Automatic annotation (TrEMBL):
Subcellular location as annotated: Cytoplasm
Gene Ontology molecular function, alphabetical: nucleoside triphosphate diphosphatase activity
Origin organism lineage: Bacteria, Pseudomonadati, Pseudomonadota, Alphaproteobacteria, Sphingomonadales
Positions bearing the site annotation: Important for substrate specificity: 14, 71, 154
EC number: 3.6.1.9
Cofactor(s) the protein requires to work: a divalent metal cation
Taxonomic superkingdom: Bacteria
Protein name: dTTP/UTP pyrophosphatase
Record: active site: 70 (proton acceptor)
Recorded catalytic activity of this chain's protein: dTTP + H2O = dTMP + diphosphate + H(+); UTP + H2O = UMP + diphosphate + H(+)
SUPFAM superfamilies attached to this UniProt entry: ITPase-like (SSF52972)
Cell wall biogenesis/degradation among keywords: no
Alphabetical UniProt keywords: Cytoplasm, Hydrolase, Nucleotide metabolism
Name of the encoding gene: maf
Entry-linked NCBIfam families: maf (TIGR00172)
Length: 191
């Protein structure tokens, strides 16, 4: 009898690389096309968990488990956008300069029977105080495009991080400790 199959509900190459570190290769990868607009007054932790859950449900398959994740950068109660233009990326970096912020990375695992398991990784990050030249150089790199909070820690931005408390993989986009716990519970991994 074959073991359970897994669908990764993400088009992110970072999430595929991260899950491979656990020795798991999804049988399929499906981008979950959902509305990612935060609800009015929605708190960042609630939003991240809701997005992971909705992505899993959007890729539901009656014969497979579906793993989905979402990463949110929050400064206080404010959810920072995914930077799609230079102005947004610049605004995010200016806001985060010299400040602590939270990176919330939620992961959800939907079983074929509809059972949903969820975990949330909370990581605190502090950027150094960024000069105008440092922000300009980072903007010129293009790494910010499509990234929550306007930066990708797995690239040049890692050199701007003064300290981090929590999950580095969660900041990249898939918290491996939490993901491993969900996959263990579902029988994808042996203890």
């Amino acid at each position: 009898m074959a073991g359970p199959t897994l669908i990764l509900a993400s088009a992110s190459p970072r999430r595929r690389d991260l899950i491979a570190r656990l020795g798991v290769m999804p049988a399929a990868v499906r981008a979950a096309d959902i509305d990612e607009t935060p609800l009015r007054a929605e708190l960042p932790r609630v939003y991240a968990t809701r997005m992971a859950r909705e992505k899993a449900l959007a890729a539901a398959d009656p014969a497979s488990h579906v793993l989905a994740g979402d990463t949110v950068v929050a400064c206080g109660r404010r959810i920072l956008p995914k930077a799609e233009d230079e102005a947004t990326a610049r605004d995010c970096l200016a806001l985060l300069s010299g400040r602590r912020h939270w990176v919330l990375s939620a992961v959800a695992l939907l079983a074929p029977d509809g059972t949903m398991r969820e975990r949330l990784s909370e990581t605190q990050v502090r950027f150094k105080r960024l000069s105008t030249q440092e922000i300009d150089a980072y903007i010129a790199s293009g790494e910010w495009h499509g990234k929550a909070g306007g930066y990708a820690i797995q690239g040049r931005a890692e050199g701007l991080v003064a300290w981090l408390a929590g999950s580095h993989s969660g900041v990249v986009g898939l918290p491996l400790f939490e993901t491993r716990a969900l996959l263990l519970a579902a029988g994808f991994l042996l203890g």
